[in-house]
Amino acid sequence: MRNPVEARAALRRGNRSRAFETLGTFIDELLERDNMYMAKIACVEFINMMATVKCWTAAARMLDYLETSGAFGDAPVLRTSVASAARMVGHHDVGPPPRRELDDRQALAFMRDELDRLAGEA
Q1: CA separation for the pair 109, 101 (Å, rounded)
Q2: What phi, psi does 61 have (nearest 5°)?
Q3: pTM of the entire structure?
Q4: CA 120 to mean position of chain CA atoms
Q5: By the 8 A CB rule, do 42 and 50 touch?
């Protein structure tokens, strides 16, 4: 299984397409293995990546997912891991979050779709 930290390193080196591909592959593996436990970890990396590339709406959507899924209460370290990105998102008007809550599988699919879209633009 690919490590989502590899995606963060690729982004830090300026290789956006590699970062999107690496995190996308990690998400694909989670979906294939039905590993919903790690969805929250993928989400943290995704939020931080989206804040870095200024995709505020996507970052806000996944912040909302972590909030509504109870992840921040279950694992407060997740909130700490996205605190900087959350502050950046808060400085941009992304509108209210969608009314529909996502389950883990839907969140992974959302992130995968967004990464595919961004890879096409990169």
Answers
A1: 13
A2: -60, -40
A3: 0.90
A4: 17
A5: no
Work out how many domains the chain is built from and give that number.
1
**pLDDT (tens digit, 9 = 90+) per residue, 35-67?**
988 899 999 999 999 999 999 999 999 999 998
Range list of H helices, the chain: 4-12, 16-33, 39-52, 56-68, 71-74, 76-81, 83-90, 104-121
73-78: Cβ within 8 A, 24+ apart = 75/40, 78/40, 78/44
Tell me the per-residue pLDDT of 65-92, one tens digit each, with 9 for 90 and over. 998 888 777 777 888 899 999 999 988 8
Range of the domain at 55: 4-121
Amino acid at 44: V
Distance CA 6, CA 26 (A): 10
* Residue 1: predicted pLDDT: 52
pLDDT on residue 71: 77
What is the rounded CA–CA span in Å between residue 120 and residue 70? 32
